[in-house]
Amino acid sequence: MVKAVTGQVAKQDVTSTPDGPDLLTVGVEEEFLLVDPHTGVAVPAVDLVMDQVPPELSGQVEREFQTSQIEIGSPPGLDLGAIRHSLGLLRAGLADAAERAGVRLLAIGTGPVEGPVPPVVDKPRFDRMVERFRLLAPGPGNNGVHVHVGIPDPDTGVRVLNHVRPWLPILHALTTNSPFSAGEDTGYASWRSVEWEHWPSVAPTPWLDSHAHYQRLIRQLIDSGMMLDEGMLYWYARLSAKYPTVEIRIGDVCPSLDDTILVAALVRSLVGTALADIAADRPAPRVDHHLLVAAHWRAAHDGLTGKAVDPHTGEVEPAWDLLDRLVDRVRPELVRHGDADRVDDLLAGVRRHGTGAERQRAVYARTGRLVDVVEDVARQTRGGSPTVTD
User: Fold this and answer.
1) How far does CA 139 lie from the centroid of its chain?
2) Alpha carbon of 228 to those of 136, 222, 246, 287, 303: distances in Å?
3) Cys bridge to 76: 9, 39, 266, 389, which one at CB 3.0-4.6 A?
4) Could you tell me the residue ranges of all domains in the chain?
5) What is the chain's mean pLDDT, rounded?
6) How many Å apart are CA 354 and CA 216, to the nearest integer?
7) Which residues make Cβ contacts (< 8 Å) with residue 315, sequence separation at least 6?
8) Confidence of residue 22 (pLDDT cuts 50, 70, 90)
């Protein structure tokens, strides 16, 4: 869900600076789960927490779909260090507000502990969604990270979507952070992804001929009844309905800020690489839709611990090999934005301590208690260091 603060991207979507021409702004949205501090069960506490949010943060905190969810958004900008600082203040302030309300804040893809599904937020649009789609609403909170990157115009944005779509499955694998649901290990690294796909409009972004084609598809999908409005276009990458950005929305919310900033840096560099390819008139690869579906399924299942499907070739290979190729592919843009050293350091950290899903499973393997998993995720949400998995 795009917040008002993300709208600032409209004023600085592509910016010339003394450090280089046309550097790309980036903004981040994160969704969180509210749980009972003793049991880890998702609780319908968003109104209680919103009442405790300090005034200086209130413009960057919003309700989400379910009453067990809450969302923050960073001010957009060029400097990932500044964005990390803003997100850190928001996370800490929101965690404090949650504690004052008697609950706990978790940066986790979905609820790991069995319990009743909290109701949907009382909002006319959400009421219409429930009336139309009934039991398709996901389980106790379905929390993602969305990264917005500024683009010069919608036509260019559609071309960017064509260029980035083959690389999104490996970013999907990197962000996996929801292996447990209803008290069980699901066998997936991202169970959130499985639940999220209950909505009929969730899918890899299709090949798009033009912005007119993009708009026509939206109209047709709304007319078909599978979407109420453009806000329900839940493709893994889309154009913002309000602001001049490409929005990448495939990942589970990241447990730590380091994970979030790594994803933001890779997404921005991927969009920048696409823009460079467009400027050089290099065509986007025409990847088959069903191969992308397979690649995203494998990413949700394995995360980075197993295999990945390379949508460019259809071959199956170690996930880390494909992630390394993505980093090599976008390195010129990482360097141009001053993010290369940061990304190398953060990737080294992921190699040491694993994805969010790996960390959760490591805690559970040591203790056999999901409440300990919840405690560890809460600690990382507040800014604590990731747990080493080996």
Assistant:
1) 17
2) 14, 6, 21, 28, 32
3) 9
4) 5-381
5) 92
6) 41
7) 309
8) confident
- Nearest to 13, CA basis, from 77, 75, 87: 77
d(CA 49, CA 99): 8
Q: Using alpha carbons only, what angle is made at residue 365 by residues 359 and 366, rounded to the nearest 5 degrees? A: 95
Backbone angles phi, psi at 246, to 5 degrees: -90, 135
The SS3 call for residue 1 is coil
Residue 157 CA to residue 385 CA, distance in Å, equals: 36
* Amino acid in the structure at residue 75: P
Write down the pLDDT at residue 15.
Answer: 40
- DSSP letter (8 states) at residue 240: -
* Nearest alpha carbon to residue 296 among 313, 314, 308, 284: 308
Question: Are residues 57 and 71 in contact, defined by beta-carbon separation less than 8 angstroms?
Answer: no
The arithmetic mean of pLDDT across residues 343-357, rounded, is 98
Structure tokens at 293: 């579906």
H-helix or E-strand spanning residue 277 = helix 257-279
Q: Which residues contact 351 (CB under 8 A, 6 or more apart)?
A: 320
| CA–CA distance, 386 with 54 (Å, rounded to integer) | 27
Q: Could you read off the pLDDT of 284-313 as tens digits, one per residue? A: 999 999 999 999 999 999 999 999 999 999
User: Mapping DSSP to helix (H, G, I), strand (E, B) and coil, where does residue 223 land?
Assistant: helix
Single-letter amino acid code for the residue at 366: R
Position 79: which residue type? D
The answer to whether the beta carbons of residues 33 and 143 sit under 8 Å apart is yes
CB 34 within 8 A of CB 104: yes
Distance CA 298, CA 320 (A): 13
| Nearest residue to 272 (alpha-carbon basis) of 19, 83, 23, 76 | 23
Q: How far apart are CA 93 and CA 279, in angstroms?
A: 42
CATH among 2.40.128.270, 3.40.50.2300, 3.30.590.20, 3.40.50.11260 for 5-381: 3.30.590.20
DSSP state of 111: -
Closest to 271 (Cα-Cα) out of 72, 138, 263: 263
The predicted model scores a pTM of 0.94
Torsion from C-alpha of 123, 127, 133, 138, nearest 10 degrees: 50
